[in-house]
Design a protein that fits this description.
Layout: H1 11-42, H2 45-71, H3 86-114, H4 124-150, H5 153-181, H6 186-213, H7 220-231, E1 236-247, E2 250-259, H8 265-280, E3 285-294
InterPro entries: Cation_efflux, Cation_efflux_CTD, Cation_efflux_CTD_sf, Cation_efflux_TM, Cation_efflux_TMD_sf, CDF_Transporter
Keywords: Membrane, Transmembrane, Transmembrane helix, Transport
Main location: membrane
């Protein structure tokens, strides 16, 4: 008797995950160190806040590496369905990091606004912020591409965080320039706008990862696509019952389909295998369970 399902590691998937982790870890560590040194040399409060945000990114990068390593472990007796549910848990950790960064940005912006703003000297802070925005933009594009290939909610959340950091650095630069040439309040106003954007992204990412953890079902468009695929198999007359549930970042699909009740067991078994193979080839589906019933017994 087999107690756990077979598991064959996908070398391409593992390579893409490693690539994403290297981009995230090395990129965040480099930015945190560069911003910290520049903030120390210049005394720039805006750059200090951005450096603190990058330090929080380094912390979540370490957690992400650990969490994704656990999520990629094969099924065992303790987790016979695999460890994929650890991935959205890591996504929630990244969401928490985004929320803390948004809180810090909002707190700093409000304090500066109440103090009447501050004229920020350009120079090294501006150069560092522009370079940081460029690096984060590259990280966003790279990680978002890998997230789409892997259908990874954690990497999607990480990509959103990179985009938020692009806006944080860009707004800090715009605010610093505005405080010099327009009004000192331009700096805190820009910071507050960025904080709102970070909170928005954190909310969207948190909602998505909570759905993965709490067993939410597929949306209607994906449900209809699953039904179409099942009914495309020769011999399947119709789908009369289906349940989908996220177990981690991918779906478990339970389908009841009607077939000709007079066909042989061998023919029905072949149809069953075809439907399972077709569904499990979908990027969004982890496992499929199929129950065939004769058409006259609905």
């Amino acid at each position: 008797m087999r107690w756990i399902r077979s598991y064959t590691p996908d070398p391409t998937q593992q390579r893409l995950y490693r690539q994403a982790l290297i981009i995230t870890g090395v990129g965040n560590l480099t930015l945190a160190a560069g911003k910290a040194v520049a903030a120390y040399l210049t005394g720039s409060a805006a750059l200090y806040a951005d450096a603190a945000n990058s330090v929080s990114d380094v912390v979540y990068s370490a957690l992400m590496i650990l969490g994704l390593w656990v999520a990629m472990q094969p099924p065992d007796l303790s987790h016979p369905q695999g460890h994929s549910r650890f991935e959205p848990l890591v996504g929630l950790m990244v969401t928490l990091s985004m929320t803390l960064a948004g809180y810090e940005a909002a707190r700093t912006a409000i304090e500066r606004f109440l103090e009447g703003g501050l004229r920020v000297e350009l120079g090294l802070p501006a150069i560092v912020l522009l370079i940081a925005a460029g690096i984060k933009a590259w990280m966003y594009v790279s990680v978002a591409r890998l997230a789409r290939q892997l259908h990874s909610p954690t990497l999607e959340t990480t990509a959103r965080d990179n985009l938020s950091d692009v806006l944080t650095s860009s707004a800090a630069f715009i605010g610093a320039a505005g405080s010099q040439f327009i009004h000192p309040l331009a700096d805190p106003i820009a910071g507050l706008i960025v904080a709102i954007w970070i909170f928005r992204n954190a909310f969207l990412a948190g909602r998505e990862n909570l759905n993965f953890l709490t067993g939410a079902g597929a949306d209607e468009e994906l449900r209809q696509e699953i039904v179409r695929k099942v009914e495309s198999v020769e011999g399947v007359q119709r789908v009369h019952f289906m349940v989908t549930e996220y177990v981690g970042p991918k779906l478990v699909v339970d389908v009841h389909a009607n077939v000709d009740g007079s066909m042989s067991l061998d023919a029905a078994h072949e149809i069953n295998d075809q439907v399972i193979e077709l569904l499990e080839d979908m990027a969004e589906v982890d496992r499929a369970y199929v129950h065939l019933e004769p058409e006259h017994e609905d």
